[in-house]
Design goal:
- By secondary structure, this protein is mainly beta.
- Helix content is about 5%, strand content about 55%.
- It is globular.
Length: about 350
Amino acid sequence: MKKVLFASSALAALAIGGAASAQGISLFGSARLGLGYGINNDGSVNLDDNGEASDDLRAVSRVRFGVNMTGETNSGITFGATIRADNAVGGNGDQNGGEGDGQNEGEVYVSGSFGTLTYGDTNGADEQWVGDLIGDYSLTGLADLDETIFLSNGGSFGNDTGNNFFADPNARPTVRYDFEIAGFGVSASANRDLDSYAVGAGYAGNFGGGTFRVAGGYYDYEEFDTTDLGIIQGGDQVSAVIEGTFGDYGANVIWTDANSDGDSGFSTLGAGVSAGFGDFALGAWYRTILEADGGLSGVDGDDAYALTGQYDLGGGATVNGGVQRNFDFQSADDDGPITADFGISMAF
């Protein structure tokens, strides 16, 4: 990634645990252009005036840039922040007319031998360790349905706006602590109001010439109000992943189960695979809703899957594309709409 560094004597005034040194600001950016089938510009399903999925072909494009800020104290504590330019208002933490919802865009962190403390639009502890299905090389993300549904995520911040299933609008901003040693790691997190909590842990190591990772997470949440389902009583979610890589091949399996003290809940199971062949890479993933109760019962057995690919042009440019069958989220008896994209992705 090409970076532009700005050194400033004004940054020397910053200090955490001692006088600060080695501060810097680096820019990063990304862009894409291409074609999309049945999608909006962000990759989500394009619905017509009747709420039906469209089958139109359209041009899709986007450009973003942001900034990474880093520093280090004399005692060796590192600190920093990152945010995209289009999210700058959310990074200020007082949106919605100054109501003070907290920082729901960008991250701020402090790190040292004690571990890392991160605030803002960041993963909950369970999401940090369990993660998402591998195998998505699509241009736009196609609504990010390969991403695991974590209640600690909230489904309404950052890049996750396409995945609002059972979404908790109070889950973020997030405060998370991480600590890792000798392949083992543990994390703990809470939402802004410090009334919903998550823990996550895992181990990564080498085996038979490849790598493997196992991890699990748990989230205990308070009551929240969704747009479509009304009040969801407090409850919990458990999740787990097993993942392995061997050379240019990789695969993972992710399971989650969420329950509320009321009658709503869901469980999902997904698998993802990827394979590299020189400059080419292919990926595929599949996820099904094993069970859904209460207000979600209509989507029992609903599933989504995709086949994607990428070709590396060099210099930060890749050709990406994917074809995806989406969740229907209306009735498990019907197939969800098919969407697709193809084009060039650029990283700067």
